[in-house]
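DM from R.C. (forwarded with permission)

"hey, sorry to bug you on a friday — could you get me a structure for this? deadline for the figure draft is monday and I only need the backbone to look sensible"
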Amino acid sequence: MLKKFTTHLFFCLLMMSVSAKTWAQTSEITGIVKDETGRPLLGASVLLLNTKTNEKKGIMVNSEGQFSIKGLSANVPYNISASYIGYETKTISNYILKPGEQATLLIQLNPSSNNLSDVVVVGYGSQKKKDVTTAIASIKASDLENQPISNAAEAMVGKMAGVQVSQGSGAPGGALSIKVRGVGTITAGSNPLYVIDGVPISNDNINTLNTNDIASIEVLKDASSAAIYGSRGSNGVVLITTKQGKNGVTTINVNSYTGWQSLAHKIKMMDAYQYAQMVLESRNNSYVDVMEANNRKYLATGKPLVNYSVNDNNGLRLFNTGNNTNTVLPLEVLPYLQGQQGLTNTDWQDQIFRTAPIQDHSISAAGGSESMKYYGSLEYFDQDGIILNSGFKRYSGRVNLEGKKGVVKYGINFSPSVTNEKRVNANGAYNANGGGIVASALHYAPIFSVYNPDGSYNFDQNSWSAGTKTTLPDNRTADGNGGTQAWNPVALAMLQKDDVATTRMTGSAFLEAELSKDLKYRVQLGVDLFNSSEDTFRPSTFPQSNTAGNPISEATGSSRTIKETNWLLEQTLNYAKTIGDHNINALVGWSTQKDDLSGNYAFASKGFISDQVEFIKAGLVTNGTATRTQWALASGIARLQYGYKGKYLFTGSIRADGSSKFGKNNKWGYFPSASLGWRLSEEDFLKNSETISDLKLRASYGLTGNFNIPNYAAQGSMNNFGYVFGGSTPGVINGAAPIAKPNDDLQWEKTAQLNVGFDAAFFNNQLTLSVDVYNSNTNNLLLDVPVPISTGFATELKNIGKVNNKGIDINLGTQQQFGAVKWTASGNFSKNINKVVELGPGNADIIKTGSVANAYFITRVGEPIGSYYLPVVLGVFKNQAEVNAYPHYLDTQGNYDVNTSKPGDFKFKDVDGDGVIDLTKDREIVGNYLPKFTYGFATSFEYKGIDLGVAMQGVYGNQILNLSRRYFANKEGNMNNMISSLDRWKSESDPGSGQDVRANRAAKGSNGTTSTWHIENGSYLRIRNIALGYTLPESLAKKLTLNKVRIYVAMQNPFTFTKYTGYNPEVTNRSDATTNGEDYGVYPTAKTTSIGINITL
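My reply, with the result:
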């Protein structure tokens, strides 16, 4: 009986794998569904489709994995599909039943994507996920298919624990910031290394890559996995693998979407009437403050006091205050104060922001045979910016070929791209030279119109140069000083040109020879060619400056070109062999890489013949520069991967890097790593567990480096200086002198990281869990250290200092099936603690200023990098009694000091406890831009062709230094303010919210000093993507001569939940790790709604 059953079972398997035809004829089908190890798949679904009538019958298998379906028609072809979450669906086509016969099927399913048995890309090879012993995060093409994504970095947002991806700017084509497990450097670059198809690229902005070409993205998070990249692995490594061809007929995929973008969050500002009232209060309070101070002086010197009132006219105010224009009420606001209707009331945000289209269209073809496989694609991407006159276009193509002839395999990956970017200078302060569009829109007074009656741009708020000339009693005139130095933001966007065009070609070619069954030799040549040109033009119709009475300027223009060539040559020997229960994979190799970058810049500021001719050759070139830099790297690589019975795993590697960037005494660095793994689920005590499908413990330790420093930092540098020679005709002769001291001992910052974790799967892989705990120490920090003045230099770049990062990464996922409903969900959580351990001599603090002079940042031992170092606001004085009760504002005679504070001003903390408020000294650490933890969550549902996916991401515990509040919430009346300024202190009987100071044009009491009042909670939860799609029934698609058709509607960034009052809680105005976390006017992010279609032919 047993022999008969075994023969019967073998025959079933054979027939299933060959042609899936019946071996018996019956009106009933029974069977069993198992996984790749032979265990029954409890909860699997079996679906039968009568291809003649399209009638469907489905059933769930029982606890033994068995199923039985009766009442089936005879002599009719059926398609039989078995599916289970986490496994590839298996379909038997055209299964024909005959009357009166039975069929018994054994269906074996193999793991699908997002399973512990997947293959992941590691440096210089790939490995089964179940055998990985290091910390690697991975996403596959299937994670990208159901949502419109224009930048590869967007695909990682909220998807990987320990990988924080931030979109600090919403500019079209802008790069995203990626940080892997915190910040481990103070002065060197903190961006990860990007490797595309095995080629490290020279430019970390990957916006030239078509996301539809991506097969997988892996991030090497721990030092052990990244050590194979040696001196460039400290900040993590992002491995991007593009799609390849497959055996079989050509498959054509078309992906297309069109969408509309709009401002994700609008800041509520005052209207013109509310603004005019604040201007009145600000001038009245300023007038009262000046007159109180004057009368105090008069009283002390015996002079008669001056009577005054807030009802005094402008002439009298100027006379009483000695022509102090801060006390004058601008005449332009009087009609608003009088309540006249129909006056100019400009919403400047509405003027610069727009609803902007976005579209992406791509087509790809893949196929091949055993001897040649191919993949090719073309893409067109076009994004208009939500700010006027900004946009980004990309044209890209790709050809990936892989062939085999005998024992030789060869291939080529080739991807050219062209981008065209229309930039606007959205970032920076309202008075930035030609920039600050966003800040200007928030600050510009709503009482001014965009255009003059003749259609030209209105520049009246350039210190309100158009008006408020007040006649004094002695017939003198004075400018009313009503506004501030700011440009018309619409003119800023529309009049200036800043066009950037890039061409890029990344590619590689390889040849691999199978020297024996176990030994392969591979040689690869990689190249990354990058060319960029930028042309700017500012017409003469733009004011020469943003000050009062400025003249019409001469046109200016510039031209900049950049050319970068990066090539790579690598040779490797790979030995892979299984001896009994022992699996061995060994790799040795040699790598050489060189980067050559050159650039030219020319500026023309005079002589343009016309505003219509925007090329610098039409003007007089008054300035120009040219640069060229190079670096080279030579490396030796070795790695051993060993496994015993699939249970006990080991990986060890070492890389030796010789770099041109470092001192002659430290040209070479060595970066070893080792990792261990133990698959407990293969042990006898867990092997047959119905609960634990897979369980692996991991531990790793490795050393990586950071070579992101200037190319010639170790050699010192020189600059040109003019030498004056005397004589009858003194002159200046150009010469050169050293400006930086060389350091022959300069070497890499080195990061040593210990990682301990586990990967687990439960209930037939329905639930997966990965946990990693790490401790990372970065030594030999590159810092500028003071040197004796006798050297002729102030500082020298040295290796000194240490930073520690420690934390935990957690990934959790589940896959479930309830009848015809499939549900997947995944979540991740990361916590990182950053601490400076050592600094320069004496562990002296590093104190820097941000975008304004008194916005201080501090890097101090025992604290995170780049903490905010500011005065502490304790509140607002509600009345004079509170001022008098605060002794720090009394003079030496115990009297109130009018030069310090009044009711309605900020009350500052006496940090050093000396009894005196001195805001240059009374500062303390008040927050940091680094979050306490980050998290992400994604879920999807599928039901009879309908799919719904939602992804969200958030951070918690970080602070933002909102420097924009210095101006659009300052209550000075020189520019518009947020609507929250309506809750300002107005009087002792109307103290407002208790958080907003009084209006005052002169900003007494240091109300304008950057302080904790400018610090805001940066925590947020953002819904990143919502996509709803419908896949046409296969029968309908076939009628259209198509294999698959999916249509969808999607939204990006539709909702953000945050307490932050600015545009974007992901904002950062600076890239320096020591001065990060600012918001000082940045291109806002957009929310997008799009419709699209995916077609497979």
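R.C.: lifesaver. The radius of gyration is 34 Å.
me: no worries. DSSP finds twelve helices and 53 strands in the chain.
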